[in-house]
Specification:
- The chain has a three-stranded antiparallel sheet.
- The protein contains eleven helices and three strands.
- The chain has helices at residues 11-25, 30-40, 44-47, 51-56, 63-73, 79-89, 98-103, 116-126, 142-147, 155-160, 170-185, and strands at residues 111-113, 129-133, 136-140.
- The chain is mostly helical.
């Protein structure tokens, strides 16, 4: 950390780093403890203290102090600001095809396959719309999607080749994904 960039770090990883910092501070290894004490001096509360004084006060250091150090090393003034930055950087929810089957009331015969290659062969031979579902793939017809309120006449379906797994045009797929998520077919991201 320390670069000011939080784009590749998760909130969980930051919490782990704070815990490791506190373990280093409490370490019997003088070198590790001294390095940790130096890092703690990034906080105003410890800034005016010598390394020896920080080490002498290590029993007063709490997890929140470790979190604050990690936030500062990531270029943020507070832990709250780091959390907000990571939250803002989180990707939007992705399409969750499981929602197709939770909302479906009609009876449709979709073609199910254990592998993408099997689904792609059926798709090439019989057409339809190819989607992933957990560790499988399925091919459905336009009426299945229309029953879900999905516009199958959207030109982006043809641009992407109606193959969600391996689209010809990833920008077209991204535009469709935004539309499908807005219809309620988005997955949820777990917050730390």
């Amino acid at each position: 950390m320390g670069t000011g960039s939080t784009s590749t770090v998760t909130l969980h990883e930051c919490k782990v780093r704070a815990s490791l910092l506190l373990k280093d501070l409490d370490s019997p290894d003088t070198t590790r403890a001294t390095r940790a004490a130096e890092r703690m001096r990034a906080l105003p509360f410890f800034a005016g203290l010598s390394l020896g004084e920080v080490l002498a006060r290590r029993d007063t250091v709490r997890h929140k102090h470790g979190l604050a150090v990690i936030a500062r090393e990531a270029g943020h003034a507070t832990w709250t600001q780091l959390k907000q930055a990571l939250s803002d950087a989180a990707p939007p929810p992705a399409l969750d095809t499981g929602g197709f089957f939770q909302k479906q009331q009609g009876v449709f015969l979709n073609r199910w396959f254990a592998t993408y290659d099997e689904a792609a062969a059926s798709f090439a031979a019989q057409g339809g719309f190819l989607f992933p579902f957990r560790h499988q793939c399925f091919v459905c017809e336009a009426d299945f999607l229309q029953a879900l309120g999905i516009d199958t006449a959207d030109p982006d379906w043809e641009r992407m080749g109606r193959d969600w797994v391996r689209p010809r045009d990833s920008a077209a797929r991204a535009r469709l994904e935004v539309k499908l998520v807005a219809l309620g077919y988005g997955g949820r991201h777990v917050a730390d």
